[in-house]
What we know:
By secondary structure, this protein is α+β, with helices and mostly antiparallel strands. It has helices spanning 13-24, 86-93, 95-104, and strands at residues 2-6, 28-32, 34-35, 45-46, 51-56, 62-71, 74-81.
Amino acid sequence: MSTITVRRPGVTSHDVAEQLRTGLGDGYHVIPGMRTARRPLAKPQPATDDTIYVGKGSGRLFCAHVTIVRHGAETEFQVVPGGLGWETVVNSLGIVRRIQGLLAD
Length: 105
C-alpha cells in the first residue's frame, strides 16, 4: 500500500472518481464503493463509500483500489494494488503509479 497526503479538505469519493476517470481514460473502470479482492483473478468486492476500485481491461488482473481518509485540512489516499503474488508487483509498478500521479496533482 502506498499513501499520498494532499492539503485539500472535504475531498469526496465522487471528486476522486471523476479525477481518475478523466486522467486514466476509456480503458479503465472506476467504480466507487468497491475494492480489490486479495485472491488471484477475483472480481471486485463491496466496500465503503470512501473506497474506489480501478481496473484495466477485464479488471481482474490489472487493478487497485483507493481508500480516502480525511484528517481536518488534509486528505490521505491509500492506494492498494490488486492481486496476490506476482500480480501485486505488476500492479504496484503499473496501475498504482498512474493513480499516484493523478492524485498527487
